[in-house]
Amino acid sequence: MPPKTGDAHWAHLEDLSTEYRIKFLGEIEPSQWPDSHRTILQNAKQLGGKTYDSYATVPGVEESEPWKVKIKYQAKLLVDTAGRCRQRNESSWRYACEPIIMGRLSSEVCW
């Protein structure tokens, strides 16, 4: 079946949400977050407020935390790469972006 476009796509998604009883209630207050997910959601909210321009712009950060400058460079590289791939299919996008992401994880995340 060919992919749906435009209004047909949204109608199909609405039908699926009705079929699977999915309801989007909007944002809920942090006090209503489930305890089991509270820490993850708080961290995600904090990260969501971080802007690219404010990261590693503190004077002297190169000396005290040089890794922040490297991470900012990698973030810029990922943004540029993803921007070039926006009109391509998923496999092209993943082929271009995954090495950047996985390279960062494999080199700096301790298991």
Describe the overall structure:
- This protein has 111 residues and is mainly α.
- It has helices at 6-19, 38-48, 61-64, 66-84, 90-108.
- It has a domain at 65-111.
- The chain contains 5 helices and no strands.
- Helix 4 (66-84) runs antiparallel to helix 5.
- The chain is flat and about 55 Å long.
- The chain starts with 5 loop residues before the first helix and ends with a helix.
- The mean pLDDT is 79.
SSE layout and pairings?
Elements: H1 6-19, H2 38-48, H3 61-64, H4 66-84, H5 90-108
Helix pairs in contact: 4-5
End-to-end distance, in Å?
Answer: 42 Å
Which spans of ≥5 residues are poorly predicted at pLDDT below 50? none
Using DSSP, what is the number of strands?
A: 0
Question: Could you estimate the helical fraction of the residues in percent?
Answer: 55-70%
Percent of sequence in beta strands: under 5%
Tell me the major beta sheet: none
Tell me, briefly, the overall form. Answer: flat
Mean pLDDT: 79
Evaluate the radius of gyration: 20 Å
Can you write the helix and strand succession as a string? HHHHH
Short summary:
This protein has 5 helices and no strands. The protein is mainly α and 111 residues long.
